[in-house]
Amino acid sequence: MARPVKKKSSRRRRMGDRTLPLTKVNYILLLVGVGIIIIGYLFMLEGSVDGAMPIVIAPILLVIGYCVIIPVALLYRQRVEMKSKSDTTA
Questions:
Q1: In a domain, 37, yes or no
Q2: What is the pLDDT of residues 5-43, one digit of tens each?
Q3: Residue 73 included in any domain
Q4: Which domain does 49 fall in, by range?
């Protein structure tokens, strides 16, 4: 005979109890990344087709902005130093 299937209770997470995981450093890194991306697009606006700015420098800046700085800004977390037990008992 088949056993009845138990349904898992759904637990809803409360968002009101949590704070945003991004700190001031994360937002500064995001702004730097967006600034580098904007500079990359401005370099692409240069009118010359044979110039080094729109062909070489602009794509490098865009790749650095999108693939390096923005992910680092989202994933960066400061290390928290833990106090040893001898420091708290003194």
A1: yes
A2: 777 655 555 555 567 788 999 999 999 999 999 999 999
A3: yes
A4: 24-77
Classify burial at 65, counting beta carbons within 10 Å of its beta carbon; exposed 0-12, middle 13-18, buried 19 or more.
Answer: buried
Residue 87, pLDDT score:
59
Q: For all residues of the chain together, what is the average pLDDT? A: 83
19 part of a folded domain: no
User: Does the residue 48 lie in any domain?
Assistant: yes
Number of domains in the chain: 1
Q: What pLDDT is attached to residue 15?
A: 55
Task: Report which of 29, 43, 41 is spatially closest to residue 74, judged by C-alpha positions.
Answer: 29
Q: Please provide the DSSP assignment of the chain as one string.
A: -PPPPPPPPP-PPPSTT---S--HHHHHHHHHHHHHHHHHHHHHT-S-SS-HIIIIIHHHHHHHIIIIIHHHHHH--PPPPPPPHHHHH-
